[in-house]
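agent> step 3/5: call structure_predict on target 'Putative GntR family transcriptional regulator' (Microlunatus phosphovorus).
agent> reason: downstream docking stage needs a structural representation; sequence fetched in step 2, passing through unchanged.
tool.input:
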Amino acid sequence: MPATFRDGAFDKFDNRVTFDDGGLHLPDRAHHSSLRDQVTEALRAALIAGQMKPGVLYSAPAIAEMLGVSATPVREAMLDLVKEDLVVPIRNKGFRVTELSDRELDELTEARLLLEVPTMGAVAAAYESSMEPELTRLRALARDLEAAAATDEITRYLQLDTEFHTRFLALHGNNEIVRVVRQLRSRSRLFGLEALARSGKLVESTREHMQMIDLAVARDRSGLEELTRVHLSHTRTIWATDQARRSATDPS
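tool.output (status=ok):
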């Protein structure tokens, strides 16, 4: 049974960390070279979803207990996130999540639009049958995304979503774009996802992933660019409302 996070805070009596609605999951081991990488991806997804909240102190041993791993890979993962400015270390205590302003989040979304929209269009324009094996994998990821959305598995959803988009962008052949987009995604905050999943509306927007694949196969450059633009706009609209952000950043 997955560990769950009730309020993102330390329990006053047993010093354990719990997170809001949903579990903290390690990604599929087949796609990661080390346990440290798996823990990093799981924590990054929890940060993006707002299940780990700004202002709350998180300890490596408590998170390690939830994941069923030793504290060492958790500490290493948290230090990786420090380098990405996602968390800050608190000496001899743990780590706190870095808070981003609305302006910073808007700037992140603008940067992603400038990079991802034309790159996805270029993928569609360059479509050829040799891409089919990778597109088959993307279709499987799209189905997994819909399943995660339907079952409210938010951290798993975000892990799959990152894999889907970065693998799709990689078809263009520019590894630097993929690297930068991955960094931009890790700094995003999508605090409205849990409410959307509970309402059933997340599944609807998740279907856009399969539509992206169809547009690429049809070599519909303008269609894929427009859908990518619409899809990314969710990150500052239906996937991240002001009310959801305030709720997710309030540790009380």
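agent> step 4/5: record observation. The first helix runs from residue 35 to 49.
agent> proceeding.
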